[in-house]
Structures are given as C-alpha cells and as structure tokens.
Model the fold of this input.
Amino acid sequence: MRRFLIFMLLIPCMAAAKENFLTEKPEGVIFVEENGRKSGIGKEWWTPAPEDIRRFEKGLPGYLKSGQGAELVGKLARYKRQYFGIKTKEDRWILVNFFCSNWGDRDWRKDRIIVDDGGDCYFQLEFNPKIGIYRNLMINGDA
Done:
C-alpha cells in the first residue's frame, strides 16, 4: 500500500514537469524541451527561461522597425506567441510563432500552429538570447 501511495503522488509531479509555461503579456506559451520535440522543429531543444523571453520582447519593436517588419510593430499586442527553444551546432535560438487567432481545433497552448498563407496575421522569427540577435523573419503571404 505504501508503494502504491508514493507512486500515485509521483504521477502528478511527472505530468506537471511536461506542462508548457503560459505568459500573460503578451499572451503566449513557452514550450518546454520535451514538448518542443513533438513540434517537429529542429533536432535538439531546450526550454527558454522567462528572462530570455523578456529580452526577446524588449528588443522586438526595434528589430521590426529596422527592416521588413515595420508594419507589424503597431499590431504586436494582438498577436499570440509560441516560444520554442532550438539548439544548433553553434548556439541556442528561440523560434517564435506569432498568430492573431486560433486555428482550427488545435490547442495553441499545446500544439505548434502552422499556417500557409494568412498574410501578416501569421509570422515567425528567431532570436539568440545569448548575443541578442534576431534573424529569419518570415511573414506569411496571401493566397
């Protein structure tokens, strides 16, 4: 009986470790390493820390204003975000999905949102929190 009780207490702890972290402002979700694997992005993953996300968000308007994303700056508050930690040979990056509405029956807090077309309602980019560099801004096109 004692072993059974200990096992029952451990199950919720193990499940909780796999939960993604929600952010309030802006509304988003940080995918934990294990759930990042399920997203189909990259080969190695890590879990971004809240301070990595704050650094990303702080510099985002300036990055967008300086390039092809200038028209997105005034709309940033309306986008939900998904943050995925991806490891490359040289460094760690955060891939961020932006979207302005839910898509289908998928729970955006648990599943990666992938959309073809949709215009600037959907875009993504990468950020290196170690050196503060943004790259690979991709804004969806219109069909």
User: Anything to note?
Assistant: Residues 19-139 form one domain. The chain has one domain: 19-139. The chain has three helices and seven strands.
